[in-house]
């Protein structure tokens, strides 16, 4: 794999896990009140 491919893969992983982590933190701070 070229350097650009590795960089793009890292960015994609960080985006996915960053979004997942942000969602979990948000749900812990604001649980659904249903």
UniProtKB/TrEMBL annotation:
Domain of life according to the entry: Bacteria
Pfam families: MaAIMP_sms
InterPro entries: MaAIMP_sms
UniProt keyword terms in alphabetical order: Membrane, Transmembrane, Transmembrane helix
TM ranges: 6-27
Name this polypeptide is given: Methionine and alanine importer, small subunit
